[in-house]
Amino acid sequence: MTTDKCKVRWSSKARRDLREIYRYIAKYNPPAAEQFAISLHNQISKLASLGLPGIQDDTQSDIRVFVFRERRFYIGVTDTAISILRVVHGRQDQASIDFTDNEKTDEN
Q1: Fewest CB atoms within 10 Å of the CB: 7, 14, 53, 79?
Q2: Does a structural domain hold residue 106?
Q3: Model pTM score
Q4: Domain for residue 25, yes or no?
Q5: How would DSSP label each residue in 52-84?
Q6: pLDDT per residue over 46-80, tens digit each?
Q7: How many CB atoms lie within 10 A of CB 13?
């Protein structure tokens, strides 16, 4: 059985979140920041090949959550694409996360 790989789209907020995470890690340990970026890319590629990633978020029925290295990735899922909406640390207040419905996503 083969599965078609979904397209991966990143919202501008998710890209900004990821840049901030990378910069924070790189400030203390640049090789760890590079390894985090590589590992994350590999995990996102795996999710795209599986189709329906993560667990459903209790507060947002159309959003799924994928946890990777203490970060929560909030993901919108369709039949052909996964849209990464936000990336936040697990200790961050999850209730205050802003999900803008009409936000532009970019393919990666």
Answers
A1: 79
A2: no
A3: 0.69
A4: yes
A5: S-SEE-SS-TTEEEEEETTEEEEEEE-SSEEEE
A6: 877 876 555 444 555 678 888 887 888 888 877 77
A7: 21
